[in-house]
Structures are given as structure tokens and as C-alpha cells.
Amino acid sequence: MALTNSSILPTKSLLQSQPSTPFSKTKPFSVVRISAVHSSDSPKNPIVSDKSAKQPATAPLAATKSATAASPTAAPSQNAVPGKWTVDSWKSKKALQLPEYPDQTELESVLRTLEDFPPIVFAGEARSLEEKLGEAALGNAFLLQGGDCAESFKEFNANNIRDTFRILLQMGAVLMFGGQMPVIKVGRMAGQFAKPRSQPFEEKNGVKLPSYRGDNINGDAFDAKARIPDPQRMIRAYCQAAATLNLLRAFATGGYAAMQRVTQWNLDFTEHSEQGDRYRELAHRVDEALGFMSAAGLTVDHPIMTTTEFWTSHECLLLPYEQSLTRLDSISGRYYDCSAHFLWVGERTRQLDGSHVEFLKGVANPLGKLR
What we know:
The protein is built from 9 helices and 14 strands.
């Protein structure tokens, strides 16, 4: 598991203070809370294609449909209006790190299918995370983000998901107990498939093939067939991401994340290690505190003690996929990329005049950049 060094992008304008959140603390001076941040050129009623405009808004989210299929190239879009953001205006910018699909008809079919699929996350969840990140920016909470460098189809199973979740629970418990402040737990999972590459091709023993770009694009086997970008992999990636988040929600709210189970979160590989001993010591101290609370008549059955909030994140890299899962929120009137709660732009795609920054400036998800 890798911890991601990312920072919240300061590219959006601050709104007015909102009512106190569970993370707020009493301070001797007043501060303006960061409750929401949005791009100044992402209007409440953005320009969309004619086909999108005909879609009725349904609560909680309305799917947006582009009249043209998302192209992996940087060719200008017929729907894009210069200077105005649309869900496909990124096509008018220079696109890096995107695959070239040989079968455009199949690509268009896959993207239409993804547009009809339900969102993986909901806009209200992303807004809730945004408010909590505002508290972290003010020093009232701690952001913990971790997960694999890239998810794979071959390693997809419940035990791997559970173990990653357990590690983040452990780290969250240590940080919360030691820092005496809330910990925002964000998993780099349920969508972290695509991999940026330094070179478009790799060579072995005189054989040159396209680089492996992640399981949602092509295969890692070093043969010509596996390295051909396959649009159908996006369908499988969507299904795996949805199934992963479904299990994470069950772990987070079904009792597995209850603080009373803090001693059971230790993983087997730490059983006979210094780190494992230190964690067990802390877990016993938490148990003692919970026992004292119970003896004093303070309930430990409150949802805050038996459940946890858990968020998902990934690098916004494969733009045709991201566009297909972008939805118009009927409550706020803003667009959300519903493939994850939190998205970031990577080192290789953070050009201000590039397609990735163009796409992200119009979605209302909390955003970050990888350093």
C-alpha cells in the first residue's frame, strides 16, 4: 500500500461560512470555514450539447449525455465552445497520457453504455467530503489517504479489499488517538486503475510494444494482443469499482469498523513485529477508555462509535471514462465526476492548458494535485 502525497488544489473560490460541522472546535477567535470551492468559469447551468440539454434532471443526479462519443485524441470537439466549459470541452485541449483505441465504433458503444450506468458515488457524498477537507485545511482534522499504486483485475478479491481497509482503520485509530482530532480516511481504491507512463512504448529483447497503461486500458502481459487498448476493459473497471465500494460501505457501516473491534484490526504480518506490539499497546489503551466510558454510563453504541466514514479517490487520467461518469446534480446544478469522491491530477497531466485540467476545472468534486 502506498500513501499518496497530494494537496488540495487552491484553484477554486471560497464561499461564505456554513453552519458548524462535527469537526469544528471552539476557538477564541473567529475563522471563515471552507465549506465549498468551485471554479469561477463552471456556471450553475453550464453549456452542454443539444442531446444533454434534452435530458430531464432527476433527483439526486441527472446523467449527462454527449452527442458525440468521447475521443481519446486531442481533436477539437464539435460541442465545445471556446472559453466555455462543457463536459467534453477537454477535447479542444492538448491531451496527454490517453490511449489510441483502434476500434472507434466499439469505443463509442462502450462510452454510451457507461453513460447509462448508475453513478458509483453521489454528489452529496462528495460535498460532505469537501466540507471535511475544509476542516483539515484549517487544522481541525487530519487527512489520511492510502492504497495501492494501481488496482488490478487479477488481485481483485474481498480479502485484499478488507486488508487495505483494515490498515487505514489502524492508521486512523493511531492518528486520532495520538492527535486528538478527527481523521478523514480516503482510500486510493475503487477506481485507481490507470497508470501514467514516461514512455508510450517499451522494448524487451528487441521487441517494441505499447506501454502497459493500467488494467482499465490494456493488459500487462508483454505481447502484442494484450497491449492493444480495449474499450471493454472500462466496463470491467466500472463493475470492479462498484463492487469494491459496495464492500467498503458494508465494512464501514456494518459493524466491522466499530471502535470496540480496534484490537482485531491488526494484520497477521505484524503479529511478531515492533510495529504490531506498539499498535496492540495503543489498542488496549483505547479498549480501556471505552470500558471506562461504558462503566460511567456513557453509551458506546452511538453510530460514531460503531461506524466510520470512508471515501474513495483516484487519479483522473482516462478522460473518456471520467466524462461518461460525470453527472449533473439536480440539487446544486453543478457537475460531479461520479467515479470517485476525490480526484487528483498527476505530475504528467497537470499542464494548465491541457485536457485534464480543462476537464477538472468544471467538476465540483474536491480536487488535488500529485507532487
